[in-house]
Amino acid sequence: MNTGELMVMLIVGGALLALFMALARMLRGPTQADRVVALELVFSANLALATAAALTSGRVLFLDVAIGLAVVGFVATIVWARLIDASPEDAE
Protein backbone atom coordinates (compact mmCIF):
# COMPACT_ATOMS: atom_id res chain seq x y z
CA MET A 1 0.00 0.00 0.00
CA ASN A 2 1.46 3.30 -1.03
CA THR A 3 1.11 6.68 0.66
CA GLY A 4 -1.59 7.92 -1.73
CA GLU A 5 -3.89 4.99 -1.01
CA LEU A 6 -3.39 5.40 2.72
CA MET A 7 -4.23 9.11 2.47
CA VAL A 8 -7.45 8.36 0.57
CA MET A 9 -8.43 5.73 3.15
CA LEU A 10 -7.87 8.24 5.95
CA ILE A 11 -9.94 10.87 4.13
CA VAL A 12 -12.80 8.44 3.56
CA GLY A 13 -12.71 7.15 7.14
CA GLY A 14 -12.68 10.62 8.63
CA ALA A 15 -15.41 11.84 6.30
CA LEU A 16 -17.67 8.89 7.12
CA LEU A 17 -17.15 9.37 10.85
CA ALA A 18 -17.92 13.08 10.55
CA LEU A 19 -20.96 12.31 8.40
CA PHE A 20 -22.50 9.92 10.92
CA MET A 21 -21.79 12.19 13.87
CA ALA A 22 -23.27 15.19 12.04
CA LEU A 23 -26.38 13.24 11.06
CA ALA A 24 -26.89 12.29 14.70
CA ARG A 25 -26.54 15.94 15.75
CA MET A 26 -28.92 17.02 13.02
CA LEU A 27 -31.58 14.59 14.22
CA ARG A 28 -31.17 15.19 17.96
CA GLY A 29 -30.67 18.96 17.99
CA PRO A 30 -31.13 20.42 20.64
CA THR A 31 -31.26 23.83 18.96
CA GLN A 32 -31.77 24.95 15.39
CA ALA A 33 -28.28 26.44 15.34
CA ASP A 34 -26.83 22.99 16.11
CA ARG A 35 -28.77 21.58 13.19
CA VAL A 36 -27.44 24.25 10.82
CA VAL A 37 -23.85 23.53 11.81
CA ALA A 38 -24.49 19.79 11.41
CA LEU A 39 -25.93 20.40 7.94
CA GLU A 40 -22.79 22.28 6.95
CA LEU A 41 -20.67 19.42 8.27
CA VAL A 42 -22.72 16.90 6.27
CA PHE A 43 -22.05 18.85 3.10
CA SER A 44 -18.35 19.15 3.97
CA ALA A 45 -18.06 15.40 4.57
CA ASN A 46 -19.77 14.68 1.27
CA LEU A 47 -17.39 17.11 -0.39
CA ALA A 48 -14.44 15.16 1.03
CA LEU A 49 -15.95 11.87 -0.17
CA ALA A 50 -16.45 13.23 -3.69
CA THR A 51 -12.86 14.47 -3.72
CA ALA A 52 -11.60 11.08 -2.53
CA ALA A 53 -13.63 9.42 -5.30
CA ALA A 54 -11.97 11.73 -7.82
CA LEU A 55 -8.53 10.87 -6.46
CA THR A 56 -9.08 7.11 -6.56
CA SER A 57 -10.83 6.89 -9.91
CA GLY A 58 -8.91 9.61 -11.71
CA ARG A 59 -12.14 11.07 -13.09
CA VAL A 60 -12.63 14.81 -13.00
CA LEU A 61 -16.42 14.41 -12.96
CA PHE A 62 -16.35 13.85 -9.21
CA LEU A 63 -14.75 17.25 -8.75
CA ASP A 64 -17.71 18.79 -10.60
CA VAL A 65 -19.98 17.01 -8.15
CA ALA A 66 -17.92 18.39 -5.27
CA ILE A 67 -18.26 21.94 -6.63
CA GLY A 68 -22.01 21.46 -6.95
CA LEU A 69 -22.20 20.17 -3.37
CA ALA A 70 -20.24 23.16 -2.12
CA VAL A 71 -22.61 25.61 -3.81
CA VAL A 72 -25.76 23.80 -2.63
CA GLY A 73 -24.35 23.49 0.90
CA PHE A 74 -23.53 27.18 1.07
CA VAL A 75 -26.97 28.24 -0.15
CA ALA A 76 -28.76 25.78 2.14
CA THR A 77 -26.85 27.02 5.17
CA ILE A 78 -27.59 30.67 4.37
CA VAL A 79 -31.30 29.99 3.80
CA TRP A 80 -31.67 27.96 6.99
CA ALA A 81 -29.78 30.56 9.04
CA ARG A 82 -32.07 33.31 7.70
CA LEU A 83 -35.13 31.24 8.59
CA ILE A 84 -33.83 30.80 12.13
CA ASP A 85 -33.12 34.52 12.38
CA ALA A 86 -36.64 35.37 11.21
CA SER A 87 -38.34 32.91 13.59
CA PRO A 88 -39.60 33.99 17.02
CA GLU A 89 -37.10 33.67 19.85
CA ASP A 90 -39.26 31.34 21.96
CA ALA A 91 -39.34 28.66 19.22
CA GLU A 92 -36.15 26.99 20.52
β content, as a range? Answer: under 5%
Computed Rg: 16 Å
- General form: elongated
Q: Can you tell me the number of structural domains?
A: 1
Give the SSE order as H and E letters. Answer: HHH
Per DSSP E runs of 2 or more residues, the count of β-strands stands at 0
Return the structural class. Answer: mainly alpha
**How many helix segments?**
3
Residue-averaged pLDDT: 88
What proportion of the residues is helical, as a percent range?
over 70%
Say what oligomer this is.
single chain
Distance between the termini: 50 Å
How would a textbook summarize the main sheet? Answer: none
Low-confidence stretches: none
Protein name: Cation:proton antiporter
Subcellular location: Cell membrane
Pfam families: MrpF_PhaF
Keywords: Cell membrane, Membrane, Transmembrane, Transmembrane helix, Transport
Q: What does this protein structure show overall?
A:
This protein is an all-alpha fold and 92 residues long. The chain has one domain (3-91). It is 85% helix and 0% strand. It has three helices and no strands. The chain has helices at residues 3-28, 32-57, 61-86. α1 (3-28) packs antiparallel against α2 and α2 (32-57) packs antiparallel against α3. The longest helix has 26 residues, at 3-28. The chain is elongated and about 55 Å long. The relative contact order is 0.14. The model has no long low-confidence stretch (mean pLDDT 88).
